[in-house]
Design brief:
The chain is an alpha+beta fold and 256 residues long. It has helices at residues 4-14, 37-57, 86-96, 117-121, 168-171, 173-187, 215-226, 246-250, and strands at residues 20-28, 62-72, 75-83, 105-114, 146-159, 191-197, 206-212, 234-244. The longest helix has 21 residues, at 37-57.
Amino acid sequence: MVTRFEKRWAVAMQQGDDNIVVLFQGGRLPSWGQLSVEDQNRFSQTHVDLMLAVAQKHQMTRLEGFRLIGPQDVWQRFWLIEFPSLAGAENWIQAEMAPPYGRYGYYQYYLSRKLEPERFSAWVTDPAPPVVPLSDDPHTIPELKVDTGSVVVLMFARYRAGAESLTPQERGDEQHVALMTSLARQYGLMRLEAFQLITPQEEWHRAWVIELPTLEAAEAWIAGEETPPHGAHARRTYQLARRWAPEYCASWAPTA
């Protein structure tokens, strides 16, 4: 029997597109810091050259990175990597873990699709300015740093057991949407994107990228997500982050 959730999930997927988005929780292992600067630079350049070749071969449409404000042990960055096919995602993952660079990394990959992009983009009240890709050859690695012009809330969520059996009224869905859209207007929501995992995890099956102008706005958004009754029916974890070298990352897929 097809459940109400499965029907809703199928409809949501149809409202997105066929692209595959790799959600990547990554970082460098402590062993990286034990290498000489010369080896670090050499391994990094070999890695960038390989990944750019994969990006070009499989027509990567997006590379976007975020650096956690508070690293979680060896998890330091979160990435969105988008391809028009599963083959591109598979080849990217294989190449990223290839030695020598791959021996010094932490890798957690999840395959996903964009969830109702038109619906959630309509919540945005103060869109972030378009990122202008660097004009330099991306094979040349510039100095990389965070963009301090915004705060990004990374949210990983799923309903608690039994919540899918409740009616939208019992869960407080309408109240939740009204509250969050009100916060979007009040604080100037810059971006809202949702991703549905192809293979749901026990702790989460959706990831959200929520960009806001200030830490105060990020705190208010998180408080809104937790507000009952809706907040009591979902399990959520949050990480605060900054956009990582956005102009350089955009230069990897300049025609996207």
